Amino acid sequence: MKILTIMGGPRKGYGAICMEKFEKELKFLQEVEFEYLYLKDVNLNSCRGCCNCFFKGEDKCPVGNDDRNEIFNKMDQADGVIFMAPIYALHVPALMKNFFDRFSYIFHRPYFFGKIAIGICNQGISGAKRVTSYFNDVASSWGFNFVNELKLSTIPYTGVEKKMVKKIRKSCKTLINALNGPRYQKPSLGDVLGFRVRKLLHNIARDETNADYKYWFEQGWLNGDKKYYYDVRIGIGKRIIAGLLNLILKPKFKVLFAEDPKQMYTKYLKLESLNFESL
Ligand SMILES: Cc1cc2nc3c(=O)[nH]c(=O)nc-3n(C[C@H](O)[C@H](O)[C@H](O)COP(=O)(O)O)c2cc1C
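That is the input. Now the predicted structure with flavin mononucleotide docked in place:
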């Protein structure tokens, strides 16, 4: 079993000390391969905001030759990924944010189904809740089965370690159980609706040259009978609500995306799709 821990802080600090304890506790439960990926040590250039990855494909990213593909491969080879960062200025450090920015195309083309993820954040006083919840949002959108948020406080008060160890052990247990259990979670109503809305959008704003469309088509997600990204039983209630939403949104999307989608995307990429002159 392989675990990859993506370390989002700019130094090997308290976060690293906590993670090493986490690794030890995890290995006490089960022998696993545990790898650290320090974002401070890799070459991951800043996103330039061109949106090429969304529309043309991630291979058309103009940022150039850096470690993005290797990082992707490491996540792909892992059974579980831990997203870990300290709180800086109420949120994730810039390195972690850039990591998410550079892989933003995965929000459009979710990939990591069948893999487990957890999020860990070490704070001084506050902010960890926001960040672990953010990790949950990102990882779930990328397809991971996100199973745990671990929030640690590194203020040096007496007995802080004891409190932390308790939480770390609990989190390790959750991670191990998830890795050994069924990897594909049952989607919530929100997950099912999210899938159906995106499917509808791709089917209406159809552009065979668009990277998102191609990916969704190749995965078979645009097929009429496809109810979710992967085969899973979806309850009748969720199916009815999703069907109704589909019926309501279909005519609205037809109006909103009446223009040729290829032209629309081309204009968008050239910053020409917003024009307030006549208003
Ligand atoms: C630039 C900077 C900004 C910080 N901002 C916050 C903050 O907004 N909230 C907080 O609780 N702690 C904040 N901290 C404290 C760190 O989250 C805390 O010390 C953490 O344990 C550092 O982890 P590290 O040693 O792995 O870098 C900040 C620390 C730094 C260096």
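Residues 252 and 258 are 10 Å apart (CA to CA).
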